[in-house]
Protein backbone atom coordinates (compact mmCIF):
# COMPACT_ATOMS: atom_id res chain seq x y z
CA UNK A 1 0.00 0.00 0.00
CA UNK A 2 1.37 3.42 -0.92
CA UNK A 3 0.43 5.30 2.28
CA UNK A 4 3.32 4.92 4.69
CA UNK A 5 2.05 7.27 7.40
CA UNK A 6 -0.99 9.31 8.39
CA UNK A 7 -0.65 11.57 11.42
CA UNK A 8 -3.08 13.94 13.12
CA UNK A 9 -1.22 16.56 15.18
CA UNK A 10 -3.37 18.78 17.39
CA UNK A 11 -0.34 20.86 18.43
CA UNK A 12 0.39 21.96 14.84
CA UNK A 13 -3.28 21.76 13.71
CA UNK A 14 -2.36 19.43 10.83
CA UNK A 15 -3.05 16.08 9.27
CA UNK A 16 -0.05 14.76 7.35
CA UNK A 17 -0.20 11.90 4.85
CA UNK A 18 2.94 10.40 3.32
CA UNK A 19 2.72 7.95 0.43
CA UNK A 20 5.35 6.41 -1.83
CA UNK A 21 4.89 5.30 -5.42
CA UNK A 22 6.87 3.26 -7.95
CA UNK A 23 6.81 6.12 -10.47
CA UNK A 24 8.66 9.30 -11.37
CA UNK A 25 7.78 12.67 -9.88
CA UNK A 26 6.42 13.75 -13.27
CA UNK A 27 4.02 10.79 -13.44
CA UNK A 28 2.79 11.30 -9.87
CA UNK A 29 2.31 15.03 -10.62
CA UNK A 30 -0.22 14.06 -13.29
CA UNK A 31 -2.58 12.53 -10.72
CA UNK A 32 -3.01 16.12 -9.46
CA UNK A 33 -2.73 18.06 -12.72
CA UNK A 34 -5.19 15.98 -14.79
CA UNK A 35 -8.79 16.24 -13.50
CA UNK A 36 -9.78 12.92 -15.09
CA UNK A 37 -6.99 11.17 -13.17
CA UNK A 38 -7.83 13.10 -10.02
CA UNK A 39 -11.42 11.85 -10.26
CA UNK A 40 -10.16 8.29 -10.16
CA UNK A 41 -8.59 8.64 -6.74
CA UNK A 42 -9.89 11.76 -4.94
CA UNK A 43 -12.19 10.21 -2.37
CA UNK A 44 -12.52 6.68 -1.05
CA UNK A 45 -13.36 3.90 -3.54
CA UNK A 46 -17.09 3.98 -2.70
CA UNK A 47 -17.30 7.80 -2.91
CA UNK A 48 -16.14 8.84 -6.41
CA UNK A 49 -15.37 12.46 -7.25
CA UNK A 50 -16.47 14.47 -10.28
CA UNK A 51 -14.56 17.66 -11.08
CA UNK A 52 -16.82 20.20 -12.79
CA UNK A 53 -14.39 23.13 -12.82
CA UNK A 54 -10.63 22.75 -12.84
CA UNK A 55 -8.37 25.77 -13.24
CA UNK A 56 -4.94 24.37 -12.39
CA UNK A 57 -3.04 27.64 -11.99
CA UNK A 58 -2.34 30.01 -9.10
CA UNK A 59 -5.63 31.71 -8.23
CA UNK A 60 -7.53 29.06 -10.16
CA UNK A 61 -10.84 27.73 -8.93
CA UNK A 62 -11.71 24.07 -8.59
CA UNK A 63 -15.23 22.78 -7.97
CA UNK A 64 -16.16 19.15 -7.47
CA UNK A 65 -18.59 16.83 -5.82
CA UNK A 66 -18.30 13.37 -4.32
CA UNK A 67 -21.19 10.96 -4.73
CA UNK A 68 -21.87 8.87 -1.63
CA UNK A 69 -23.44 5.41 -2.04
CA UNK A 70 -26.99 6.69 -1.37
CA UNK A 71 -26.62 9.16 -4.25
CA UNK A 72 -26.10 12.26 -2.12
CA UNK A 73 -23.55 14.72 -3.49
CA UNK A 74 -21.05 16.25 -1.07
CA UNK A 75 -19.60 19.36 -2.74
CA UNK A 76 -16.23 20.96 -2.25
CA UNK A 77 -14.06 23.79 -3.55
CA UNK A 78 -10.38 24.62 -3.87
CA UNK A 79 -8.58 27.84 -4.65
CA UNK A 80 -5.12 27.08 -6.01
CA UNK A 81 -2.63 29.29 -4.16
CA UNK A 82 0.73 28.00 -5.48
CA UNK A 83 1.85 25.65 -8.24
CA UNK A 84 5.47 24.77 -8.95
CA UNK A 85 5.30 21.88 -11.42
CA UNK A 86 6.11 19.09 -10.94
CA UNK A 87 7.01 19.17 -7.25
CA UNK A 88 4.76 21.48 -5.22
CA UNK A 89 1.20 22.74 -5.04
CA UNK A 90 -0.93 24.49 -2.45
CA UNK A 91 -4.62 25.17 -2.20
CA UNK A 92 -7.27 26.45 0.19
CA UNK A 93 -10.25 24.11 0.45
CA UNK A 94 -13.65 23.76 2.02
CA UNK A 95 -17.26 22.71 1.59
CA UNK A 96 -19.43 24.07 -1.23
CA UNK A 97 -23.18 24.57 -1.57
CA UNK A 98 -25.49 23.23 -4.31
CA UNK A 99 -24.30 26.10 -6.58
CA UNK A 100 -20.65 25.00 -6.07
CA UNK A 101 -19.82 28.13 -4.11
CA UNK A 102 -17.99 28.06 -0.75
CA UNK A 103 -20.37 27.55 2.18
CA UNK A 104 -18.13 29.59 4.49
CA UNK A 105 -14.88 30.82 2.89
CA UNK A 106 -13.49 31.70 6.33
CA UNK A 107 -13.92 28.09 7.47
CA UNK A 108 -11.36 26.80 5.00
CA UNK A 109 -8.30 24.64 5.39
CA UNK A 110 -5.01 24.74 3.50
CA UNK A 111 -3.37 21.86 1.66
CA UNK A 112 0.30 21.58 0.74
CA UNK A 113 1.49 18.79 -1.57
CA UNK A 114 5.18 18.06 -2.04
CA UNK A 115 6.61 15.44 -4.40
CA UNK A 116 10.14 14.22 -3.78
CA UNK A 117 12.11 11.92 -6.07
CA UNK A 118 13.66 8.86 -4.41
CA UNK A 119 15.50 7.31 -7.33
CA UNK A 120 12.82 5.50 -9.35
CA UNK A 121 10.21 6.17 -6.64
CA UNK A 122 8.34 9.28 -5.51
CA UNK A 123 7.36 10.32 -2.01
CA UNK A 124 4.19 12.41 -1.87
CA UNK A 125 3.53 14.39 1.30
CA UNK A 126 0.14 16.05 1.77
CA UNK A 127 -0.23 18.35 4.77
CA UNK A 128 -3.68 19.70 5.56
CA UNK A 129 -3.57 22.67 7.91
CA UNK A 130 -6.53 23.81 9.98
CA UNK A 131 -7.46 27.09 11.66
CA UNK A 132 -8.38 25.61 15.04
CA UNK A 133 -8.38 22.40 17.06
CA UNK A 134 -12.17 22.35 16.68
CA UNK A 135 -11.92 22.43 12.88
CA UNK A 136 -9.26 19.69 12.93
CA UNK A 137 -11.36 17.48 15.19
CA UNK A 138 -14.51 18.08 13.12
CA UNK A 139 -12.70 16.90 9.98
CA UNK A 140 -11.25 13.90 11.83
CA UNK A 141 -14.73 12.96 13.09
CA UNK A 142 -16.04 13.17 9.51
CA UNK A 143 -13.50 10.48 8.56
CA UNK A 144 -10.87 12.54 6.77
CA UNK A 145 -7.95 10.44 8.05
CA UNK A 146 -9.35 7.12 6.85
CA UNK A 147 -10.89 8.62 3.71
CA UNK A 148 -7.61 10.14 2.58
CA UNK A 149 -5.75 6.91 3.33
CA UNK A 150 -8.23 4.94 1.20
CA UNK A 151 -8.12 7.58 -1.54
CA UNK A 152 -4.34 7.70 -1.83
CA UNK A 153 -4.11 3.92 -1.88
CA UNK A 154 -5.94 4.04 -5.26
CA UNK A 155 -3.13 6.00 -6.95
CA UNK A 156 -1.00 2.91 -7.66
CA UNK A 157 -3.63 1.67 -10.11
CA UNK A 158 -3.40 4.95 -12.05
CA UNK A 159 0.36 4.71 -12.25
CA UNK A 160 0.48 1.04 -13.31
Helix content: 10-25%
Give the topology string: H per helix, E per strand.
EEHHEEEEEEHHH
Secondary structural class: alpha+beta
Kindly estimate the percentage of residues that lie in beta strands according to DSSP: 35-45%
CATH topology: Alpha-D-Glucose-1,6-Bisphosphate, Chain A, domain 4
Identify the CATH architecture.
2-Layer Sandwich
Cα-based radius of gyration, to the nearest Å:
15 Å
Task: Supply database-style keywords.
Alpha-D-Glucose-1,6-Bisphosphate, Chain A, domain 4, eight-stranded antiparallel β-sheet, globular, alpha+beta, 160 residues
Structure description:
Helices cover 23% and strands 42% of the residues. Strand 1 (3-9) and strand 2 (14-21) form a beta hairpin. The two termini are 13 Å apart. It has a single domain, classed as START domain (Alpha-D-Glucose-1,6-Bisphosphate, Chain A, domain 4). The protein has helices at 25-33, 35-39, 133-141, 144-152, 155-159; strands spanning 3-9, 14-21, 49-54, 61-67, 73-84, 88-95, 109-118, 121-129. The protein is globular. With 160 residues, the protein is an alpha+beta fold. The protein contains 5 helices and 8 strands; from the N terminus they run E-E-H-H-E-E-E-E-E-E-H-H-H. An 8-stranded antiparallel sheet has the order 1-2-8-7-6-5-4-3.
Amino acid sequence: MPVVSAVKDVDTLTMTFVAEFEASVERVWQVWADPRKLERWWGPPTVPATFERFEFEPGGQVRYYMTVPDGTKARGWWTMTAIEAPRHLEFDFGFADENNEPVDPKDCSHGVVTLEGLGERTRMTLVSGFTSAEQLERMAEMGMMEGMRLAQNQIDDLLA
